[in-house]
Amino acid sequence: MVSYKELGLVNTREMFAKAIKGGYAIPAFNFNNMEQLQAIIKAAAETKSPVILQVSKGARNYANQTLLRYMAQGAVEYAKELGWEKPQIVLHLDHGDSFELCKSCVDFGFSSVMIDASSLPYEENIALTKKVVEYAHKYDVTVEAELGVLAGVEDEVSSAVSHYTKPEEVVDFATRSGCDSLAISIGTSHGAYKFTPEQCTRDPKTGKLVPPPLAFDVLDAVMEQLPGFPIVLHGSSSVPQEYVDMINSLGGKLPDAIGIPEEQLRKAAKSAVCKINIDSDSRLAFTAAVRKVLTEKPGEFDPRKYCGLARDFMEDLYKHKIIDVLGSDGKA
Ligand code: G3H
Ligand code: 13P
Ligand code: ZN
Predict the structure, then answer these.
(1) Which candidate, 276, 253, 261, places its Cα nearest to that of 326?
(2) Does the C-beta of 30 come closer than 6 Å to ligand 1?
(3) What is the arithmetic mean of pLDDT over 149-157?
(4) Of 41, 66, 151, 231, which has the fewest Cβ atoms less than 10 A away?
């Protein structure tokens, strides 16, 4: 058993309370490798932003759980080396799908876990979430739950359509499960294809696809039911056109990739939405950089050259999200 406190990490409780009060959101960036972690920590340290390092089940399998824990511990020390005296860093399990996985993460030094039982029937979602909460809270680890289903793929949970969260269920769910924060479904979805072209309209001036707006009425109704309760948005990548264009012009194939417009995320960040999840944008930045280096210099075979540019692209992306979208700079 390793306590996250020994690793210099923090849980989300105080961080979320401050974010709601201050009208900003904490960035939750997924990481799978050293370059992503370096870029996240550098961006957070240089902007003095609290940050959530997210690890999915897939990332844990990819990178190895022991290595990840030491990487997170190293991240805290790296942040201090960069001049961030009291780093506000959370290590969070993203989309945990069982009690055993959540328990293992608590035991391995995570400071926050998500139990995603949103695909289960309502009562089973409550029961499983409660079981995770009872275990995690013994160690002061905070728990995110999910109610409603996002379109797209949530690890093993697959759904072709999205089922918005029902505001009339949130008080009962939060009270009986004891969760610390709640991920809701208001029209975001995972990946780089959040909407089909048929779901979008076209801007007559640019000819570009314009996605439908998020269901802010559902968010408002949830906030009315649960005043001041921390709300989480998954699937919040914006799928920057510059990266998509770069990838496509360098031999990639991402037709009609489309994300959530940043102005909608800016609006959400000012509300009780206090955690915004971004993974796909970082994958796009990484891929664009690797394609650029390998296309421009076909003879290059030093991974530090293409992973180095990928790291620069991701750092710029994370800083942009922190400063221009979530407003979390200067809050840690
Ligand atoms: O919500 C899912 C995250 O983007 C993690 O994706 O399961 O492929 O690591 P992954
Ligand atoms: P994106 O695919 O939009 O980046 O969402 C990531 C996410 O929700 C991780 O849990
Ligand atoms: Zn997610």
Answers:
(1) 276
(2) yes
(3) 54
(4) 66
By most ligand atoms within 8 Å of CB, the mutation choice from 26, 29, 30, 150 for ligand 2 is 30
User: Residues 77-86: what's their mean pLDDT?
Assistant: 97
Residue (of 173, 118, 171, 113) closest to 143 by Cα position: 113
Q: pLDDT per residue over 288-302, tens digit each?
A: 999 999 999 999 999
> What would the 3-class secondary structure string for the chain be?
CCCHHHHCCCCCHHHHHHHHHHCCCEEEEECCCHHHHHHHHHHHHHHCCCEEEEEEHHHHHHHCHHHHHHHHHHHHHHHHHCCCCCCCEEEEEEEECCHHHHHHHHHCCCCEEEECCCCCCHHHHHHHHHHHHHHHHHCCCEEEEEECECEEEECCEEECCCECCCHHHHHHHHHHHCCCEEEECCCCECCCECCCHHHCEECCCCCCEECCCCCHHHHHHHHHHCCCCCEEECCCCCCCHHHHHHHHHCCCCCCCCECCCHHHHHHHHCCCEEEEEECHHHHHHHHHHHHHHHHHCCCCCCHHHHHHHHHHHHHHHHHHHHHHHHCCCCCC
Residue pair 54/279 in contact by the 8 Å Cβ criterion: yes
Separation between Cα atoms, residue 25 and residue 230, nearest integer Å: 10
Q: Active-site residue 94, yes or no?
A: yes
Residue 95: CB within 6 Å of ligand 1? yes
- Domains contained in the chain, CATH given: 4-326 (3.20.20.70)
What is the CB neighbour count within 10 angstroms for residue 319?
Answer: 18
| 152 CA → ligand 2 middle, Å | 11
C-alpha 132, offset from chain centre: 20
Name the closest-CA residue to atom 5, ligand 2: 235
pLDDT per residue as tens digits for the range 322-332:
999 999 999 99
CB 144 within 8 A of CB 114: yes
